UniProtKB/TrEMBL annotation:
GO terms for biological process: methylation. The lineage of its organism: Bacteria, Pseudomonadati, Pseudomonadota, Alphaproteobacteria, Acetobacterales. One of its GO terms (molecular function) is methyltransferase activity. Signal peptide: none annotated. Gene3D superfamilies: Vaccinia Virus protein VP39. SMART domains: PKS_MT (SM00828). Residues 33-264 form the Polyketide synthase-like methyltransferase domain. This is Methyltransferase domain-containing protein. Keywords: Methyltransferase, S-adenosyl-L-methionine, Transferase.
């Protein structure tokens, strides 16, 4: 799978881009601002705080207790696991990613707690290399839209959850009326040009309830947090304007951000936190 934004991020981090290191060196996801009007889109440290806050909102929903076994599927640089490990003791943490380059950085950044380090495993979230009933919580932060199949991932997450376990994710959930438009974004020609690579944002709330039922799960929480994430677009827009992309590539990326901002504001595409519990 080709994800141009990940390749760009890794090459900029290798070149010592300090603004990117601060904003996306730990988390590769949108920010969460409790007071969106107070966001400071020109400041990387404000973005870093907001990205950390997004992980915290998701972790609140996951309700993780000391001693639990937690899998973060599509773990990026391991930021959500680090955030969790700093707050809860005696955890057994595993991060999984399809891209070994990200895992290398995650392992480099990881710090021990209670004599343990998170373990990082290369693999596809749709064929989890773990035994049945091996985790109390499975997380997937802002990545399910890249996975080859939501249905396969939900089935795998259900398989590896222990009794009483839960799956918690974040995703862009379209309003039912917007689903046909989101299917257009899947045209191969658009996906090739798109900075974010192949993204499937076609699963509505009703779609999630159906997929969950097929996997033996129930959607127990679906929280729309779009309003709190919107300053992300102003931040990314400024970064793009300062970055190396020029000409048509930059105009296209800026246009994409404006569209995401608009469909977020109008409720057509909702940044959501979802919790699934076994049926
Ligand atoms: C937007 S990033 C989010 C990373 C991380 N969850 C975070 O919040 O910082 C999307 C991630 O999904 C990962 N990914 C894409 N397809 C995957 C797959 N099939 N299995 C596991 N990880 C995958 C990418 O490598 C990338 O790390």
């Amino acid at each position: 799978m080709t994800l141009p934004y990940i390749d760009h991020l890794l090459s900029q981090l290798a070149r010592g881009n300090t603004a990117l290191e601060q904003s996306f060196g730990r988390h590769i996801h949108w920010g969460y601002w409790p007071e969106p009007a107070a966001a400071q889109p020109e400041r990387s440290e404000d973005y870093a705080r907001a990205a950390e806050r997004l992980s915290l909102e998701l972790l609140d929903l996951a309700d993780i207790a000391p001693g639990m076994r937690v899998l973060d599927a599509g773990c990026g640089f391991g930021g959500t696991l680090a955030c969790l490990q700093e707050r809860v003791e005696r955890l057994d943490l595993t991060g999984l990613n399809i891209d070994p380059r990200q895992l290398q950085r995650a392992a480099h950044l990881a710090r021990p707690r209670d004599g343990r380090l998170p373990r990082f495993v290369a693999g596809d979230a749709c064929t989890l290399p773990f035994a049945d009933a091996s985790f109390d919580r499975v997380l997937a932060v802002e990545c399910i839209f890249h996975f080859p199949s939501r249905a396969a991932f939900l089935a795998e997450a259900r398989r590896v959850l222990r009794p009483g376990g839960a799956l918690v994710i974040s995703d862009f959930v379209p309003a039912r009326s917007w689903v046909p438009m989101t299917r257009m974004a899947r045209w191969p020609s658009l996906e090739r040009l798109n900075l974010f690579g192949a993204c499937d944002v076609t699963c509505s709330a009703a779609g999630y309830r159906n997929l969950a039922a097929e996997a033996g799960l129930n959607v127990t929480t679906l929280r729309d947090i779009t309003r709190h994430t919107l300053p992300t677009y102003a931040f990314l827009g400024r970064m793009l304007a300062r970055g190396t992309r020029r000409g048509a590539g930059q105009r296209m990326a800026q246009g994409g951000l404006r569209l995401l901002d608009l469909v977020g504001r109008t409720g057509l595409l909702r940044y959501s936190l979802l919790r699934f519990d076994p049926a």
